[in-house]
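hey so i finally got around to running the thing on that chain from the lab meeting. sorry it took forever, my laptop kept dying and i had to restart like 3 times. anyway pasting the input first so we r on the same page abt which one it is
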Amino acid sequence: MEINTIYLESIKKQFLYYKTLGEKAMDQLEPEQLFIQTNEDTNSIATIVKHLVGNMLSRWTDFLTSDGEKDWRNRDSEFENDIATKEALFKIWNQGWQCLLNTLDDLQPEDLAKIIYIRNEGHTVVEAINRQLAHYPYHIGQLIFYAKQLKKTNWDSLSIARNHSKNYNADKFSKAKEIKNFTDDELKRLDKR
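ok and heres what got predicted. didnt touch it at all, straight out
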C-alpha cells in the first residue's frame, strides 16, 4: 500500500478517535456542567466546542481551493458563551466534525503534496492536516481535563485506568504481532463505555 494512502487512513482514524474522546468526556457530565465558566479567563466546555467547530468549518470548507481562514469566520465570537442546550452543542459539534471527515474522505493520495493557504501562509496538505491534528487534540485535552474536574461522581477513565497498566500491557503482549492503527482497539474499548 502506498504511504500516502496509509497516511490518509491513519489520520482519519486519529481524528475520529479524538472526536470520540471528546464525546465520551462530555457524556459523563450533567448538561448544565457543559456551560460552566469558572472565571473570566476560562472557557466553558461549550465554548471550547464552539471554537473547535468554528475552526473546523473554516479550515475544511473548500479545503483545497480557498484560504483556511474564511472571511465569514468570526473567531472572536467563538469565545462567547452563548450556546444554551446540550442538544444545540452536539448539533454544532457534529457539523464541524462532519465537515472535516467529509473533506478527508474526498482527499486523494496525490493531493497531499498540494499547497493550500491558511492566513496567506502556504502549507502542503500534509502540513495543514498535521496542524489541525495537533490543534484539535490540544483542545480535546482541555475539554477532558475540565470535564474530570466538573464531574461530581466517579470519572469513567478514557485511557488506561490508574493501576491497570500491567494488565493492559499483559493483554497486548499476549496477542500475536500485527500491523494496525492503535485507534482500532481504542475505539472498540471506548464504545463499550
